[in-house]
Amino acid sequence: MTSAPRILVVGGGSAGTRHGANLAELGARVSIVDPRSDRREDARERIPRLESGFESLDAAIAAAEFDAAVVATPTALHVEQSLALIGRALPLLLEKPVAPTLLDAKRLASEADAIGVPVLLGYTYRWWPPFVELRRRLRAGEIGTPRHARFLMSAHLADWHPWERYQDFFMSSAELGGGALLDESHFLDLMLWLFGMPAAITGRVERISELEISSDDNVDVLAAYASGLRVAIHLDLYGRPHERSVTVVGEEGTLQVTIAPNELRRGSTPGEWERVPYVCERNDMFVAVAHEFLELVGGTRTVPSCTTEDGLRVLECVESIRSSSATGRTVEVGRDAPR
Question: The pTM is what?
Answer without folding.
Answer: 0.95
